[in-house]
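Hey, quick one: can you model this chain's 3D structure?
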Amino acid sequence: YSGWVWEERVIWRRISKVALVWAMTCTNAGWVVAQDRSAFLTNQTINCTRCVLSAASLDRRDLTGADLSGADLRGATFFHAILRGANLSGVNLAGANLKRHDLSGANLSGANLQGASFHRAILRGANLADADARGANLNLALLTSANLQRANLAQALLFQVDASGADLRQAKLSAALMGGARLLVAKLDGADLTFADLWEARLTNASLRGAILTGVNLHAATLLRADMSGVSGERTDFDQAILRGANLADAVLHEADFLQADLTEADLSRADLRGSRLSAAKLFNTIQSETNLQR
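Sure thing. Here's the predicted structure for all 295 residues.
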């Protein structure tokens, strides 16, 4: 019995020591973060990882190359702030106003950007992989060569955005408004574009392999030489779209509308277009090997 009591006391002492070390570590970490926040807000440093900076004024701050990863920036103001090359990975910028700001080369991977405004912002070469940008305003933003892999852009505003050369593979773009968007040579493989509006969008040489196009509006869009092999969807609107030289091999597009579309020299090999309308469509030199056009 006495041996058992002794072992129990030893165990509790060890547990107490571990708990004490853990508490001291947390206290020290909290003190370091608080110290970093104070130094950051007094302009002694441009770095403040995991800091709570909600409602802070960052107006006119030059934060080029700053490390603010994991910071809570909800409600913070950025009037004339410079954020080129800043590390903003995992930050909370929900509802932030970053209109016309230059975030070239910034790292916004995994950031919460819900409802934020990047209207006319410069995000050239920025990293937004895995970012949550649902409902964000990116109208007229410059996203050339940006990384948006797996980003959630559902219901985002992307009117006339320039995302040429951008990587949007596996991105969620359902119900996104992308009228007039420039997506030249962009990668949209596996992207979910359900009910997205791409009216008059330019997708020359873009890659959309395996993308979901259900209910997508591509009226008068330019898809010259676009790789759309394996895309799927229903009731996709290609009315007056330019698909010359496009690759639609193995596509499954039921009840799609190709009214007056230009499919000259397009590849429709093994495509399943059952129920689709091709009235007045241009099919000159179109490859239709094993294509299913049943009404």
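One thing worth noting: The chain has a mean pLDDT of 92.
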